[in-house]
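Intended use. Records such as the DNA repair protein RadC entry shown here are meant for training and evaluating sequence-to-structure methods. They are not intended to support clinical decisions.
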Amino acid sequence: MNQKSRGIAHWPKSERPRERLLEAGPASLSDAQLLAILLRVGRQDFSAVQVAMDLLHHLEGLQGLANRSLEELCAVPGIGPAKAAQIKAAIELGKRVLSTPLTTGTKIANSQIVFQHYYPLVRDLRHEVFKVILLDAKHAVIRDLTVSEGSLTTSLVHPREVFNEAVRESAAAVIFLHNHPSGDPSPSSEDRILTRRLQEAGNILGIQVLDHVVIGDGRFVSFADEGWIA
């Protein structure tokens, strides 16, 4: 059994990921070493670093790690539910750190604010998620909610589900957003039809539809910016 197959506790301190991070900072560690700190222990005859390397290899790097399910993580030898949960929690914290705070009372002045907040949260999803941001009369955030989660190509959204909470929260206006896992934010014909239906429902209820933001890979399309919101 070579040194790399032994537990990290038996390695020289200069090679242990945790000690190296404390001495030289996180930037000095490789992806596998950072991941090994989360995993803490490996599996029989394999260190946590080796398990981390296997994980990154099977899931095609950090990007793959971010968008795989718990079941897919657990399919890699040495990764059980507890370790998979730790990884998912760390990834979610990273997303939240990157997203611009959009707390209750935050005023949304433009579509860029919506994109900056939600892009880190939806960029790695492999399915569409449709969200609605509820706003008061001054266009300040009341809260947001997920209305629907669909497949790679479609997300079923009904005006009843969209406006139910808006009415309950006495929202004066709403902003819709959803992601395109393909990376291309260009609205589909279904997106345009849905937006018109939601606008019509909002008009009946007296709730203004301010925008519908479609998020792709590093870019977005705003219906309001394009002049598609009446």
